[in-house]
Amino acid sequence: MPFALPRRRFLSLAAVAAGMGVAGAPRASAQPDGWQAIADDVRRETQWAWQSYVDRAFGRDQIKPVSGGGEDFFAQGRSVGLTIVEALDTLWLMELDAEVEQGVDWVKNNLSFDIDAPFQVFETNIRLVGGLLSGYHCTGEPRLLELAVDLTDRLMPAFTSSPSGVPYRYVNLRTGAVSRPDTNLAELGTYITEFGTLSELTGDRRYYDAAKRALQVTFDRRSPLGLVPYSWLAPTGTWLNTTATVGPPADSYYEYLWDGWSLFGDGDLKVWYETLVSAILARQSEVVDGRLWFAQVDALTGLKLSREQSELAAYFAGLLAEGGDIQNGRRYHDSWNAVQDRYGVLPEAIDYSNMSVVRKGNLLRPEFADAALNLWLATGDDLYRHRAQRHYELMKATSKVQYGYTILNDVTTNPVVRGDSCPGYWWSEQLKYYWLMFGQARRFNYDDHYLSTEGNLLKGAVRQ
User: Fold this and answer.
1) What is the C-alpha separation between 452 and 233, in angstroms, rounded?
2) 82 in Cβ contact with 61 (< 8 Å)
3) How far apart are alpha carbons 452 and 250 in whole angstroms?
4) For residue 98, what are the contacts with CB-CB under 8 A and spacing of at least 6?
5) Distance between CA atoms of residues 141 and 449, nearest Å
6) What is the per-residue pLDDT across 91-102, written as a single tens digit (0 to 9) for each?
7) Sheet containing 243-244: order of strands
């Protein structure tokens, strides 16, 4: 049965006609030359870090930028070039075409998913399927699409083996054996955009239907308060706890409800998003010292269980703005900006009741910059560029090492304590967000586009 859902045009700005640049780019309201200089610096840093990866760890999933080695992400001894796949569309948007060619050639000549090992379905989808699809969208290289289809078919047993339609967490890419029935909202619900894009490209709606079924099962079993607990058992599609959170491990579930509507025009997903976010605002929002936060609460009673806030939850500020609630999006980003003002580099988690640090590391997280980009696109307010500029400068000051950029183990010390790893998402996310905010990317349609939870460009590439 061919895939056929109505599409609707996704507007990133409510009114862009008065401020259009290349491909609909909003013009900077101040110091355009200064913004472009920062964008050029981001591009140079990306090119330098890429060369270090090529020299030291090409083909490995991730570089160890302090020691200069490489590491695997999905399975020990089974690297699949994760950094290459994640970087492709970022390099393409920056017009680093020689680097794009290096990456595409490696994928065409080396990448295979015939691997006898369990892969985490969620991470494989957002990073590898999404990265291959965005690479295909930007370059048109057919091998990237072929690999995306092959990989997604290898992931499908996680869905089809589950009586409820809620996917298992792991699947063996060679045998199709599934494992880990204990799952969570993010890992069961972050598929609709990649799977839906694949359905559109292939005409096979199995992918879209599988992703939507998992979303519907969990939405339909929301609590009487309209909240969804984060922990689930895949085969039965039932809760394993009663805790609701907008942070991990629930975060991207809410993104993909909105994204499924904005990308495919599926009205069900819009209703589900609005229903759940209304309940979150009513039951989980809390103002402390004038700042908006979102508590972990009991989904049945609304009782507040924890005021710990993960940095990953910062995405929610941008999602609220995308969904039309710019006021609360601004307020929540203000809260996270207060954390940046206090600590500089954002820690992994804080207790917002007193702004104390709960987890001291920083894994090169992109969520603050992601939200800044979405708020800037929604409002045109250069305040969010300034915040992202500070985020970038702090990253350069603390995470840049001999062979690239590394995670931090403790941001509360002076100097910070560094780790030795560069996550694949660093290439796909904040480098791209900085580039799109600070420059006027000629290959990006600012008016009509889509970026996934992993920052993968699935709509809006401008080929020249």
Assistant:
1) 26
2) yes
3) 16
4) none
5) 20
6) 999 999 999 999
7) 243-244, 296-298, 304-306
Q: Can you read off the two tokens belonging to residue 7? A: 């599409």
The DSSP element (H or E) to which 285 belongs, if any, is strand 285-288
The pTM of this model reads 0.94
CA 185 to chain CA mean position, Å: 15
List alpha helices for 323-382, DSSP H: 326-343, 367-379
The dihedral built from the CA positions of residue 222, 224, 227 and 231, taken in this order, carries a sign that is negative
Residues of the chain with pLDDT > 90, as a percent, come to 92
Taking only the tens place, the pLDDT of each residue in 100-151 is 999 999 999 999 999 999 999 999 999 999 999 999 999 999 999 999 999 9
For the stretch 385-391, contacts whose Cβ atoms lie closer than 8 Å and that sit 24 or more positions apart, written own/partner, are: 385/28, 385/35, 385/437, 385/438, 387/333, 387/337, 387/340, 388/433, 388/434, 388/437, 388/438, 389/38, 389/438, 390/340, 391/340, 391/346, 391/430
DSSP state of 24: G
Euclidean distance between CA atoms 159 and 422, whole angstroms: 31
For residue 34, how many other CB atoms are within 10 A of its CB? Answer: 13
Partners of 308 in beta bridges: 351
Best CA proximity match to 92, nearest among 431, 450, 454, 373: 431
Question: Which SS3 state, helix, strand or coil, does residue 164 take?
Answer: coil
Report the pLDDT value the prediction gives residue 194, as an integer from 0 to 100: 98
Pairing of strands 408-410, 296-298: unpaired
Dihedrals phi, psi of 462, to nearest 5 degrees: -110, 105
The amino acid at 331: R
Write out residues in the chain with pLDDT < 50, as ranges: 1-3, 5-31
Are 169 and 180 spatial neighbours (Cβ–Cβ below 8 Å)?
yes
Cα dihedral sign for 84, 90, 93, 94?
negative
Instruction: Write out pLDDT tens, residues 51-101.
Output: 999 999 999 999 999 999 999 999 999 999 999 999 999 999 999 999 999
